[in-house]
Amino acid sequence: MELAPLLSVSVETVKRYTSKGQIPCVRIGRRVLYQPETVLAALAEATVNERRVADE
């Protein structure tokens, strides 16, 4: 399964999120692997944290 279509974003956006550390991944050599459930949970957590900051 490809991550970009799951998130409804481009491959470049996935790469950008990865380089900024916004989504978790595992690097094996030159390969970058994602666990979709973990990525979705990380993005949901980031959204909750952003809302908390905005409400303060």
Overall average residue pLDDT:
92
Helix-and-strand structural type: mainly alpha
Task: Determine the number of helices (DSSP H or I, runs of at least 4 residues).
Answer: 3
Report the helical percentage.
55-70%
Shape: elongated
User: N- to C-terminal separation?
Assistant: 38 Å
Estimate what percentage of residues fall within beta strands.
Answer: 5-15%
How many E strands?
2
* Cα radius of gyration in angstroms: 12 Å
Low-confidence stretches: none
Q: How would you write the strand order of the largest sheet? A: 1-2
SSE succession: HHEEH
Quaternary state, please? single chain
Largest sheet: 2 strands, antiparallel
Care to describe what's here?
- With 56 residues, the chain is mainly alpha-helical.
- 61% of the residues lie in helices and 11% in strands.
- The protein has helices at residues 3-7, 11-19, 36-55; strands at 26-28, 31-33.
- A two-stranded antiparallel ribbon has the order 1-2.
- Strand 1 (26-28) and strand 2 form a beta hairpin.
- It is elongated and about 40 Å long.
- It starts with a helix and ends with a helix.
